[in-house]
């Protein structure tokens, strides 16, 4: 939960770097929240309402943490646009997001793993 809250605190911070743990824990919490909201919407009969409100509210933090994650692998945030290429693009982006970040400082900032230690 702390990883999720940390990303929300950096709501529109597109600079710096994000560890793999930060990105994937945020993604996991989003996935769980979306499932819960879909179930609640289904029970209440408001099917897309809460789900869509949450999706709209989480767009910027999701984009920001993805760009910071790309920065950790020493790639520009513009690499996010590769996901627009059908079939291949999302797979390439997924590989980039799974790669380990650079262990030393790079042009986007200090190593977040080293900063935590």
What's the β-strand tally? 0
Report the major sheet.
none
Order of helices and strands: HHHHH
Radius of gyration: 16 Å
Distance between the termini: 20 Å
Low-confidence stretches: none
Helix content: 55-70%
Proportion of residues in extended strands: under 5%
Give me the number of helical elements. 5
Mean pLDDT: 93
Question: Structural class of the helices, strands and pairings?
Answer: mainly alpha
Principal-axis shape: globular
Write the SSE topology.
Elements lengths: L1 H8 L10 H25 L4 H24 L15 H11 L13 H5 L1
Mind explaining what this structure looks like?
The protein has helices spanning 2-9, 20-44, 49-72, 88-98, 112-116. The protein has 117 residues and is mostly helical. The model has no long low-confidence stretch (mean pLDDT 93).
Can you give me a brief rundown of this structure?
This protein has 117 residues and is mainly α.
Task: Give structural attributes.
117 residues, mainly alpha, 62% helix, globular
């Amino acid at each position: 939960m702390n990883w999720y809250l940390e990303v929300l605190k950096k709501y529109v911070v597109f600079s710096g770097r994000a560890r793999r743990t930060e990105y994937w824990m945020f993604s996991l919490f989003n996935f769980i929240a979306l499932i819960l909201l879909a179930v609640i919407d289904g029970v209440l009969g408001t099917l897309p309402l809460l789900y869509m409100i949450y999706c709209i509210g989480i767009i910027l933090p999701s984009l920001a943490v993805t760009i910071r994650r790309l920065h950790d692998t020493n790639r520009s945030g513009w690499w996010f646009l590769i996901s627009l290429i059908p079939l291949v693009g999302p797979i390439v982006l997924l590989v980039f997001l799974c790669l380990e970040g650079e262990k030393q400082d790079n042009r986007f900032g200090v190593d977040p793993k080293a900063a935590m230690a």
